[in-house]
Automatic annotation (TrEMBL):
GO biological process, alphabetically ordered: DNA metabolic process
Keywords recorded for this protein, A-Z: Exonuclease, Hydrolase, Nuclease
Superkingdom to which the source organism belongs: Bacteria
Domain Exonuclease: 2-179
Keyword Nuclease on entry: yes
Pfam families: RNase_T (PF00929)
Annotated protein name in UniProt: 3'-5' exonuclease
GO MF terms, alphabetically ordered: 3'-5'-RNA exonuclease activity; nucleic acid binding
Gene3D superfamilies reported for this sequence: Ribonuclease H-like superfamily/Ribonuclease H (3.30.420.10)
Phylogenetic lineage: Bacteria, Pseudomonadati, Bacteroidota, Saprospiria, Saprospirales
InterPro entries: 3-5_Exoribonuclease, ERI-1_3'hExo-like, Ribonucl_H, RNaseH-like_sf, RNaseH_sf
Statement: the UniProt record of this protein carries the keyword Nuclease: yes
Organism encoding this protein: Flavilitoribacter nigricans (strain ATCC 23147 / DSM 23189 / NBRC 102662 / NCIMB 1420 / SS-2) (Lewinella nigricans)
Length: 183
């Protein structure tokens, strides 16, 4: 059993637009059944609908235009990601801070005509954390780290760094997560 703690970064704009977001980074860490970090995965992804990143997006994520220009398109990046976590060969559960990442994977799969059933085994660490901490409403990852006395490491809003930080909370409460729906 693998727990895939993941975080996505996507195209974004400062002002609300009708533009659809597209994944520009997949960051993930693999945790085994003993709560041990097994490996990490990171790739940038080249967007197709809006290939030019907004200044806001570059500033927020610290992802440069050259990072995405040199990156694979989503179908290839997804294949690399799935191969990394042994999709089809090992049981897994996708874990992210909220449901955004699951929805974004589904949207990008739809955009590229790819099956999205693989995202079904998923939990929101954010929402479960809020429940067992008895919070009135879920908090952001940065606030949860502060509540736990865990330092935020790396760059916030970078997929791989956020995945590493989420994994710290996941491992701390390893036996607490409701993990039904594992494949």
């Amino acid at each position: 059993m693998h727990y895939i703690i993941l975080d996505l970064e996507a195209t974004c704009w400062e002002e609300r637009t009708k533009n659809k977001n597209e994944i520009i980074e997949i960051g993930a860490v693999k945790i085994n059944a003993n709560a041990e970090l097994v490996s990490e995965f990171q790739t940038f992804v080249r967007p197709t609908q809006h290939p030019e990143l907004s200044e806001f997006c570059k500033s927020l994520t610290s992802i440069s235009q050259s990072d995405v220009d040199a990156a694979p398109h989503f179908p290839e990046a997804l294949q690399q990601f799935q191969e990394w976590f042994d999709y089809g060969r090992a049981s897994y559960l996708l874990c992210s801070w909220g449901f955004y990442d699951k929805r974004q994977f589904k949207d990008d799969c739809k955009l590229h005509g790819l099956d999205a059933d693989w995202v079904k085994p998923h939990i929101s660490v954010k929402h479960q954390y809020g429940i067992f901490k008895k919070l009135e409403r879920p908090v952001g990852m940065k606030q949860a780290l502060q509540m736990e006395g865990i330092a935020l490491e790396g760059t916030h809003h970078r997929g791989i760094d956020d995945a590493r930080n989420i994994a710290k909370i996941f491992v701390k409460y390893f036996g607490e997560w409701e993990v039904s729906g594992v494949r």
